[in-house]
Design goal:
about 300 residues; TIM Barrel; 13-stranded mixed beta sheet; binds zinc ion
Length: about 300
């Protein structure tokens, strides 16, 4: 049993799920970050300071956008591999001295969503990407793009999809905004939700009802049982992507840009997602279009 993942009848809400503030090694406070991002059209941000369990509910300040709780854990597992893992959701009691593996276990027990952060930059192997059953993988990390160009997690996401065909993609800023780590608004997600509330945004992320982008926009996604109907900002290519060599595509190198397409989706691929690419080579990705079995309800 497979179910189409997307319901794009709500409103699109842009957000960033990986960010550092002065609560760890970032250069800006929560009010500064909220003002900056809200002015660029962002509606929500997650606090993911290193090993800091944020507590948005206890923050009396009012902000021009919605803050949500998270944290970023780092450390080595028993194989010696180094991981950074972004945990989305409210957690308590995570301590660096307890180590990465215990931290991951505790975060998962508390219902956090675990995202493998910047695997390319960490030097993670494809086995690393499969070892801890991550809920998602960063397919683009903006600060790593600045640091040494190792920003692309698509290959690691592809590995994670082999075990979990519902594994989600995330494009993120990993904002620091210090002189040695500049840059923001380079990678984000856009969720589709009925309202901009903590509950609705967390539910949309948990069910994967969002896309990841470095530029282009998905405006609607619909499935009629055979074909996918997509509307987008003007893009040069639309790609239906499956395991290994599998893929279908629309678009040309020099012809008109696309904004409204219908494309058949093969039924026999273990997973399938959509990638769109604009005239400047910037890309955006859906999550796997279908969820199967027990994961169908998120
Ligand atoms: Zn990191
Ligand atoms: Zn980070």
């Amino acid at each position: 049993m497979r179910t189409f993942r997307y319901d794009t009848s709500g409103q699109w809400l842009k957000g960033n799920v990986h960010l550092h503030s002065t609560a760890s090694d970032g250069g800006k406070s929560f009010p500064e970050l909220a003002a900056l991002y809200a002015a660029a059209g962002f509606r929500f941000l997650f606090r993911t300071d290193h090993w800091v369990s944020s507590d948005v509910a206890a923050d009396p300040e009012s902000y021009p956008l919605l803050w949500l709780d998270g944290t970023e854990l780092d450390g080595q597992d028993q194989t010696g591999a180094m991981f950074h893992v972004v945990c989305l959701g409210t957690t308590k009691g995570l301590k660096r001295e307890d180590g990465l593996v215990n931290g991951l276990k505790a975060a998962r027990e508390q219902g956090a969503l675990l995202i493998l952060a910047h695997p390319h930059w960490c030097g993670n192997s494809l086995e690393d990407a499969r070892r801890w059953g991550f809920d998602g993988v960063e397919v683009y990390n903006h600060v790593c793009h600045w640091l040494n160009g190792k920003s692309n997690g698509l290959v690691h996401w592809d590995a994670a999809l082999k075990d979990n065909p519902s594994a989600q993609a995330f494009a993120v800023d990993d904002t620091h905004l210090r002189p040695e780590h500049p840059g923001w608004n380079g990678g984000w997600i856009v969720v589709n939700a009925a309202e901009c509330t903590r509950t609705a945004i967390l539910a949309a992320i948990r069910t994967g009802n969002y896309y990841s982008s470095c530029g282009p926009e998905f405006r609607s996604l619909a499935w009629d049982g055979k074909e996918l109907h997509l509307t987008t900002s003007p893009v040069r290519f639309v790609r239906i992507v499956g395991p290994a060599v599998r893929g279908e595509r629309l678009g040309t190198f020099a012809g008109p840009l696309l904004t409204d397409v219908k494309i058949p989706v093969p039924r026999d691929w273990d997973y399938v997602y959509v990638e769109i690419e604009d005239h400047s080579g910037k890309r955006a990705w859906t999550n796997p279009l279908f969820v199967t079995g027990s994961r169908a309800n998120g």
